[in-house]
Write a structure and sequence with these properties.
199 residues; alpha+beta; Alpha-Beta Plaits; 2 domains; 4-stranded antiparallel β-sheet; rod-shaped
């Protein structure tokens, strides 16, 4: 059997041509497509990461909006408990009536000068803390009842100092065992003349 060299050369050339077609298709078609797919997958992954960040930020903003709304409601609630400056006389009259209702004789109610610094009122706020000094005479249980009634008031007040001592007056109307009470307290009010009165 003789091998035709020409036939072998043609078969070899055909096989090389087929291999060249396969390699050319892989190099010119599949390899670029694979690169594009890889780049597209990376781009999609990057976009998904960005989207997750945006979703987290949006959720945080939503929570912050709700928190701000709750804080605004709390501020409005506390502002409704503050009298305005014109109502300060009414508040002092309420305090005086509470003392009288608890059998405490009012010896004096004085507005004292504030130094303008309050740990409870931030700088630049429209609220003001007004210190008030009060002096009463009566029995201890009456004074205790007065403090409980004061605590139940809807107004925002702060008792800063209480001083109790036996009443040493020689007044014959004063019963034995009575006390003299000095009370330093702060009444907070809204320093806005145009604001409607608190209810």
């Amino acid at each position: 059997m003789t091998i035709d060299r020409g036939e072998l050369a043609r078969q070899g050339a055909f096989i090389l041509m087929l291999l060249g077609i396969v390699l050319g298709a892989w190099y010119f078609m599949f390899l670029p497509r694979d690169r594009e797919d890889r780049q597209m997958r990376l781009a999609i992954a990057a976009k998904q990461r960005q989207l997750q960040k945006i979703n987290r930020a949006t959720a945080t903003i939503g929570n912050l909006k709700e928190e701000i709304s709750n804080l605004d409601k709390a501020i409005q609630f506390f502002q409704s408990k503050l009298p305005n400056e014109k109502e300060m006389d009414k508040v002092l009259e309420e305090v005086w009536r509470l003392a009288e209702a608890n059998d405490m004789a009012t010896k004096g109610i004085y507005a004292t000068k504030s130094n303008g610094i309050s740990p409870f009122v931030p700088a630049g706020a429209t609220q003001v803390e007004q210190p008030i000094k009060m002096e009463f005479v009566g029995d201890f249980m009456g004074f205790y009842g007065f403090l409980l009634a004061l605590e139940a008031q809807p107004r925002i007040m702060r008792v800063r100092e209480i001083k109790l001592e036996p009443d040493a007056s020689n007044n014959s109307d004063v019963k034995k065992g009575q006390i003299r009470a000095s009370l330093m307290m702060s009444i907070f009010f809204e320093n806005q003349p145009n604001r409607k009165g608190a209810t």
